[in-house]
Amino acid sequence: MSEPSNKGVKQTILRCHGPCAHVPRHHGLQLISEPLDGWITMWNLDDSALYFKLLCETIPYAFTWGEKDREKREKIRAAIASKFPNEIPQARWWAFRLYAKKGGHNGYDVENIPKLIVDAFSGTLLRQDDSSFHQLELYADDKVGRVAMVQVRGEAFEGGDSRRIEIFGRRA
Question: Can you state the percent helix, strand and coil of the chain, rounding each to 5?
């Protein structure tokens, strides 16, 4: 009996970056592979040759969308506004890395976490919401040509809600 062959098998490579004092990513491991199956790509948003980090901020809300969305978007905008850069570099497209903690909840849907954050920076919704934070506009709308990637992780834990928001631009 011959040994199984790994020929043609693509592996996702993980690398540990030492103690992760900040937001956990894949339990301290970071994806570093690029092409996978010829067309799917695993992005490393920390690659400063390809991406720049516009914002990294933790806010005291971990809202999910569904009701009172306008009010939730405005609370998110208000929490971010003073930390948002005055100069926004040109980007080919935008990406978000989000990490949410919801205290006392074991049953929220992780896929509902990014909607309000991504929408908070849309010019269309800033105008529709009659927002006071028009300086936060990153894109006219959040179609795939403007927002190409959202990475999200959520967890339930004992304590208050929080959400870490990281916004990256793909270098032009």
Answer: 20, 30, 50
